[in-house]
Amino acid sequence: MEFPDLGKHCSEPTCKQLDFLPITCDACKQDFCKDHFSYTGHKCPFAFKKDVQVPVCPLCNVPVPVKRGEIPDVVVSEHMDRDCTFHPGRNRNKVFTHRCSKEGCRKKEMLQLACAQCHGNFCIQHRHPLDHNCQAGSSSASRGRASTSRAAEQKKPSGVSWLAQRLRRTVQ
Questions:
Q1: β-strands 98-99, 18-19: how paired?
Q2: φ and ψ at residue 148, rounded to 5 degrees
Q3: What is the DSSP string of 58-119?
């Protein structure tokens, strides 16, 4: 007991531990040990003055100012009812905006798929010049080959019999 004035006792009524490195609460100005120095550790009555948080609206991601003494949940709720710029039924940006230019096709794509020859906008299925009967810059020979290949595809028998015929041709 050479230094009786060294250190301070914890201000928490249930603790009263002698601490040689006490921590002073910046809100209530009392001294506490390492176990009780946080606002929640000693149930600080003035914590609301120092523990300031700005809530953010979950719909529009805008910080909502809260005055001292107001409950943040109530203020955010009022913001959502009055001032919030987000409206669930309105102002939705459409994702699929690029409509296919092929006659009879009603598909829409997220990205613009322009034909290099006719510069029309097409869906994935009609993006190639042969698929949308492109008229610009194509020769009659390539169009003729495309029509014969399509006719051959339509005449192909389906299933195992088609595969068996194909294998027989390659073997012979």
A1: unpaired
A2: -70, -40
A3: TTT--B----TT--HHHHHHHHHHHT----TTS-PPPS--EE--STT---EESS--B-TTT-
Copy the structure tokens of residue 107. 């598909």
**Cβ-based neighbour number of residue 149 at 10 Å:** 11
Q: Which residues contact 140 (CB under 8 A, 6 or more apart)?
A: none
Structure tokens at 126: 């009609």
pLDDT digits (tens), the chain, 172 positions:
566 678 899 999 999 898 888 999 988 999 999 999 888 899 988 887 776 778 999 888 889 988 877 888 899 999 988 888 876 665 566 777 889 988 899 898 888 888 988 988 999 999 888 888 888 754 443 444 444 444 444 454 555 566 666 666 666 5
Residue 32, token pair as written in the block? 């506490």
132: Cβ contacts below 8 Å, ≥ 6 apart: 101, 102, 115, 120, 122, 126
Reference 84, options 103, 54, 98, 64; nearest CA is 64
Give CA–CA dist 120/111, Å, rounded: 13
Residue whose tokens read 């914890």: 10
